[in-house]
Design goal:
With 392 residues, the protein is of the alpha+beta class. It contains 13 helices and ten strands.
């Protein structure tokens, strides 16, 4: 409003990282660049690098949001988001970064919040050290985003639960050592019948498929998991019976926002690469950056990155303050995922034929961006969530 006095210093919002946060981001960027060698070959083969996974753990990435008493760094959500944005910027292996995010947000944090002391001490230190890999298994072949209609069943049998069913599109599934699996006691109960279980690799009755060949994020293994008379001790149930929907919703709230910090890093890198190309590429006697339509596309990239940061770091602030960020997370996920795809398409257009070739990796950025509009709930599901929370 005209004539409005500026806010006092102690009431202003400071969006700058603290010195400690900045030091962490600088270290993550330096480390992330060491993960890029052989990237094109690994992407072509669809190869997950266990060696790089271990190096990430040694650096401390997997343990960033995990409390120190369980082997983690005990960082707050905002600091972890900043670090993962830095990793997304420096590490061009988007699949590796995605697998890290999938374990951190959809497995580790649900375990931190809902696990028993024995469960947390059994798994979290080894997850942080990179000794084991965790996966989150909820999607089913016939039900997709309609998680509450899942057909995977469990029954109580003495000191065990018996699981039957199949999961698909499980990130880290082919390599996971422990699976967070969801099943229902009765489909008719919908969300009230859902429970969650920690199922270790090698448990009789559980099998995993080979990695699914896919369009993007090819260095992140994704597969199917089947349960047939799989006996899981009661001690391996995560949370109470019927708490599955609360565990699932909490995991999705974290994942929908937090995983997209790495997308912002990728978007920043992609914009900088595009600016450098637009300044060096000459057409009609001048750099193509001087043509209005090219500059306009790059400006839109910058606007999307800055808007995405505000949305994502608002979620971090709300969660760090103990608040509910379901609506904010859905908004951030929807905006950043779709903006990332638009930005990758614009980068290809500006690079022309070079962008369409595999030589300079721009086309791979598009292939890796597209899944963001699908995983953690499709764009259509995010719009449905937002509409519901707006009372529509």
């Amino acid at each position: 409003m005209p004539g409005r006095l500026p806010l006092p210093e102690d009431e202003r919002v400071d969006f700058r990282p603290t010195p400690d946060q900045q030091a962490l981001c600088d270290a993550v960027r330096s480390f992330g660049r060491t993960l890029n060698d052989g990237m094109l070959d690994r992407d072509a083969r669809g190869e997950f690098s266990r060696e790089r996974w271990k190096r990430c753990a040694e650096f401390g990435l997997q343990g960033l949001p995990v409390p120190t008493e369980y082997g983690g760094a005990g960082q707050d959500l905002t600091t972890t988001l900043l670090a993962m944005e830095a990793l997304g910027y420096a590490c061009r292996d988007n699949g590796l970064v995605f697998s890290l995010n999938a374990q951190m947000w959809a497995f580790e944090l649900p375990l931190v919040r809902f696990g028993t002391e024995e469960q947390k001490r059994r798994y979290l230190p080894r997850l942080c050290r990179g000794e084991i890999v965790g996966a989150h298994a909820v999607t089913e072949p016939d039900f997709g985003s309609d998680a509450m209609s899942m057909s995977s069943r469990y029954v109580r049998d003495g000191d065990d639960y018996v699981l039957d069913g199949a999961k698909t599109f499980v990130t880290n599934g082919p390599i996971a050592d422990v699976i967070l699996a969801f099943a229902t006691v009765d489909r008719g109960l919908r969300s009230a019948g859902l429970s969650a279980f920690l199922v270790e690799r090698g448990t009789p009755g559980m099998s995993t498929s080979a990695p699914i060949s896919k369009m993007g994020l090819r260095t992140s293994p994704m597969g199917e998991i089947a349960f047939s008379g799989c006996r899981v001790p009661v001690a391996q149930r995560l949370g109470a019976e019927g708490a599955g929907v609360a565990i699932f919703n909490a995991a999705m709230e974290w994942e929908r926002a937090c995983i997209f910090a790495s997308h912002l890093g990728s978007m920043q890198r992609l914009m900088e690469d595009t600016i450098a190309y637009a300044k060096s590429r000459k057409q009609f006697g001048q750099a193509i950056a001087r043509f209005g339509p090219v500059a306009d596309r790059i400006v839109d990239m910058k606007v999307a990155i800055e808007a995405g940061r505000l949305l994502l770091y608002k979620v971090g602030a709300v969660k760090d303050a103990g608040g509910d960020a379901v609506l904010d997370a859905a908004v951030a996920k929807l905006f950043v995922s779709e903006a990332h795809v638009r930005q990758a398409v614009d980068a290809i257009q500006i690079h022309g034929g070079y962008g369409y070739s595999t030589e300079i990796e721009i086309e791979r950025e598009l292939r890796d961006a597209i899944p963001g509009t699908i995983y953690s709930g499709t764009s259509e599901m995010q719009r449905k969530i937002i509409a519901r929370l707006l009372g529509l």
